[in-house]
Amino acid sequence: MTHDDPPALPEFDRRPPVTDKAVQYRIYRVGTGAGLRIVCLSPDLLGIHTHWIGGGTRPCLSGGVCLPCQHGVRRDWHAWVTGYDPTNGHIRIVELTENAAGPPARWIDSTGTLRGARLTLRRPGGRKTSPLVSEVEAGSVPAELLPPDADRVRCLLRLWRLPDTHLAAISTSDLSGISLKLREA
Ligand SMILES: [Zn+2]
Questions:
Q1: 105 has which bridge partners?
Q2: What's the 75 CA to ligand 1 centre distance in angstroms?
Q3: Does some domain include residue 31?
């Protein structure tokens, strides 16, 4: 650089940088404490059969390639819903058991969407293995004023360390038919 070159100038932005914020949300599992009350941001349930391995849920991979299935590991169904906690402003992706997904599924059947509804989750049995129960009520905040839903699929794939290029098909509309299929690598 000679003294004739113009000095380098900083480049200003008119908008904050685009970050992958949607995939930063953690998966939240309701424990034995006071439970959790959220306002649902997701319109629907996103569910899949899972195996409990190494202290967490892992997806059951269909198509005869699932190692836990081949070894007889128990298979359970879980669903995930994004929720806003009005007491602290946190947005969380909350894990539901098949049992706890029943009331939200019926709510969706009767109203068309879960978004904006209030979901209460607790384990009344007091143990970590006690069944999770849920209750859904109408919310008081109009859905259009709520924050957007998080990208649950990408959050889960990141959690499970699966590349999202392997994602072949997602169906989220029907509780009985919900599946997240992963292509064979
Ligand atoms: Zn499996």
A1: none
A2: 6
A3: yes
- Residue 50: its pLDDT value, please? 92
If phi over 0 gives left and psi between -120 and 50 gives alpha, with beta otherwise, what is residue 116? Answer: left
Instruction: Determine the distance separating the centroid of ligand 1 and the alpha carbon of 92, expressed in angstroms.
Output: 26
Spacing, Cα 65 to ligand 1 middle (Å): 8
In-domain check, residue 157: yes
Residue 31, domain extent: 21-182
pLDDT score, position 138 = 96
**For the chain, how many structural domains are there in total?**
1
CA of 51 to the centre of ligand 1 (A): 6
Distance 69 CA to ligand 1 centre (A): 4
Consecutive H or E run containing 105: helix 102-111
Q: Is the residue at 118 inside a domain?
A: yes
30/80 Cα distance (integer angstroms):
12
pLDDT band for 23, please (50, 70, 90 cuts). low
Task: Answer whether residue 15 is part of any domain.
Answer: no
Cα 14 from Cα 151, distance rounded (Å): 25
Q: What is the mean pLDDT of residues 48-75?
A: 84
Q: 98 C-alpha to center of ligand 1: Å?
A: 16
